[in-house]
Specification:
The structure holds 2 protein chains of 2 kinds. Chain A is mainly alpha-helical. Chain A is built from 15 helices and no strands. In chain A, helix 3 crosses helix 14 and helix 4 runs antiparallel to helix 11. The longest helix of chain B is centred in the last third of the chain and has 34 residues. Classes of the chains: A mainly alpha, B mainly alpha.
């Protein structure tokens, strides 16, 4: 059963192959129907784009839209472990769920406000370090130096390693006795830190891991941005006698902004919703290290409060939506995008 | 580094005429950063090579004096190869389907104007903000009702679709940078719209398609949550479930776990290495989305 034999290989290829085949046949049938109705029968102007979008749209309707609507319905129910088969859906139940989010502890003790503040602090710290670290490395890698490719290959390591493995490896390093950090601290003659139980140091540990994980993504996107800056700008500035920092401030930074802005938007979303790092590093399940999404997971799957968690999830989603829209407003997202596209079009000729 | 310039000069200077000392400093800094980047994984490798009776150690040596492959053998004996195989079959097929579907949809978004186009793009972007745990409850209930628990069918469909929104954004951004004149020339020559897409746009988009495939692959390869709620029998597990079973039992088998961790990292590292020449252009052009 547990060994990879010919029969096992055949069975797995069979089941996956059958599913893939079903998807292909379904897409083909769908396209044929659309082709005959839109192209032949109606001669619709948008026949081709509709046919291009339809398969993905149906997939997303099944796996994203429908579950979301179901989630919305669930938020107005009292579904939990006792009412799993026969949940009661009502407006009053929904209002009670939403009221509970803001007035009672979400988990055992922690309420939504400290969770929200911690999530904001967490996101802010992460984005700051990711951009600072990624930009520094990108500036260095953009120079004319040897071994650039080798450095780049090693520096994307944290991003390429499966995240769960990286996170669990780091968790081991926070072990009181055998972890790397305490061994080093003791070698330096300092006191060991209780990374897993001390609320402050646990939060520090979580932040350290995620900084390590997130810098490569920023480094790669910003390096692409730096490479698309025309070197004649720098040459002109050098003729004018501009120094290194002046060139950085007046040429690099403004021209990099169009690429920086969307990267930061994605960074905010991914950090805000980061589950693996705060969940797995926090081995002792300290509520003082939870951010919104880990609290959501615990409320749903450890306390089995499905209806309440559905309402909680909607609140979290709306907070993130608000935060993202706010950032896009203050950073002039749309003009930045337009300039970025013009710049990219210029350099890619 | 020139004496009259400070650290700021060193970092921001582009170093065409950089002094020897400046270059040396750059290399030193990059080497240090590389060590920080790979050291945690070297530590995992070190544990995987230790003999079973002294996995916990305060030694900081990377290759232990009494290195052994015993943990790798133990991982294989426990069925690790099967879990990697399961993951590989599922992941490769879903990443391919995902990229195919997304590449077609992105073309429609890049080259046609239609009602609801902006709304569609905003919707795709908004789906990125959904916390993963949020969809787990409804997906679990749907999977129970459709009888997909304990099968790979649900997993294959879910993985194929889950990366589509991000892929469409990225590919649309990339298609937008390809001059429309190239297709117009082909259309005049009598090629159909789809023919132009297949012969002109797709080949030119290799960097972005490669990165999309990489992202799709990584999402499915690394998924733990969905596999946990859908798969039950150990024989059907993907590697994250198998690996986790090593350390969630009554006795924690760090040795076998570490050996497995090193082995599952290898396919992704290879993919990253192959696509590294496209990583920068594919990522950056794609993330400057329309």
């Amino acid at each position: 059963m547990k060994n990879l034999t010919g029969a096992v290989i055949g069975k797995s290829l069979g089941e996956v192959g059958l599913t893939v085949l079903t998807i292909i046949v379904a897409v083909a049938v769908l396209e044929l129907i659309l082709y005959f109705i839109l192209h032949k029968l109606l001669k619709h102007r948008l026949a081709t784009p509709i046919m291009l979008i339809a398969p993905a749209a149906i997939g997303m309707a099944m796996l994203i839209v429908y579950p979301l609507l179901y989630e919305l319905r669930l938020a107005f129910s009292n579904m939990n472990l006792y009412h799993f088969k026969n949940p009661e859906f009502s407006l009053a139940q929904g209002l009670a769920n939403f009221k509970r989010i803001f007035t009672e502890p979400v988990l055992k003790q922690v309420t939504i406000l400290p969770l929200l503040v911690r999530t904001f602090i967490w996101t802010f710290i992460q984005i700051t370090f990711h951009v600072a670290g990624g930009l520094t490395l990108a500036l260095l890698l953009n120079r004319k130096i040897k071994f650039k490719g080798i450095y780049r290959a090693f520096l994307v390591f944290p991003w390429a390693i499966p995240q769960i493995i990286a996170v669990l490896a780091w968790r081991g390093e926070f072990h009181y006795e055998y972890g790397y950090f305490n061994i080093m601290l003791q070698n330096l003659g300092l006191a060991a830190i209780n990374w897993k139980q001390d609320p402050f140091w646990n939060f520090v540990a979580i932040n350290m891991v995620n900084i390590w994980l997130g810098v490569p993504f920023m480094m790669i996107t910003l390096l692409g941005g730096l490479q698309s800056i025309d070197s004649t700008y720098y040459e002109a500035a050098e003729i004018d006698g501009a120094g290194g920092f002046t060139k950085f401030r007046t040429i690099t930074l403004p021209l990099l902004k169009p690429i920086l802005t969307p990267s930061v938007v994605y960074g905010i979303i991914w950090t805000f919703n980061n589950f693996n790092v705060p969940y797995f590093i926090n081995e002792q399940e300290l509520e003082s290290s939870d951010i919104l999404v880990t609290a959501l997971f615990r409320a749903a799957f450890e306390y089995n409060q499905y209806g309440f968690s559905a309402a909680f999830a909607l609140v979290i989603f709306l907070i993130l939506l608000g935060l993202t829209v706010l950032y896009m407003r203050i950073s002039n997202f749309k003009p930045a995008l337009r300039r970025a596209r013009a710049m990219v079009a210029e350099t890619s000729e | 580094m020139n004496a009259k310039h400070g650290a700021g000069y060193w970092l921001f200077h582009r170093g065409k005429d950089g002094s020897r000392a400046g270059r040396l400093l750059t290399h030193l800094f990059l080497i240090l950063a590389c060590i920080v980047a790979i050291y945690p994984i070297l530590r995992v490798m070190s544990v995987s090579l230790r003999p079973g009776d002294r996995l916990l150690s305060t030694s900081l040596a990377i290759i232990p004096a009494d290195a052994t492959m015993g943990n790798y053998k133990e991982a294989f004996d426990r069925g690790f190869l099967l879990w990697i195989w399961n993951s590989l079959v599922i992941t490769l097929s879903t990443a391919t389907i995902g990229v195919l579907l997304a590449s077609a949809s992105a073309y429609a978004f890049a080259r046609w104007e239609f009602k609801g186009k902006n709304g569609g793009l905003v919707f795709l972007f908004a789906t990125q903000m959904i916390p993963a745990a949020m969809l787990m409850i409804p997906l679990y209930i749907i999977a129970v009702r459709m009888g997909l628990i304990g099968t790979w069918k649900g997993l294959v469909i879910a993985y194929s679709v889950s990366s589509i929104p991000f892929s469409i954004w990225m590919l649309k951004g990339y298609y937008d940078t390809i001059p429309i004149e190239l297709e117009e020339a082909a259309l005049i020559d009598g090629t159909s719209r789809i023919g132009a897409f297949y012969r002109i746009i797709l080949p030119l988009s290799t960097p972005s398609l490669a990165i999309c495939f990489l992202f799709n692959f990584m999402t499915a390869w690394n998924d733990y949550l969905l596999a946990r709620i859908i798969l039950q029998k150990p024989g059907m597990w993907t590697w994250p479930l198998g690996l986790q079973s090593f350390i969630m039992n009554f006795r924690t088998e760090w040795g076998a776990y570490s050996a497995g961790a090193i082995m599952v990292s290898i396919p992704v590292m290879i993919l990253f290495f192959i696509s590294s020449k496209w990583l920068i252009s594919g990522m950056t052009l794609g993330s400057v989305k329309g």
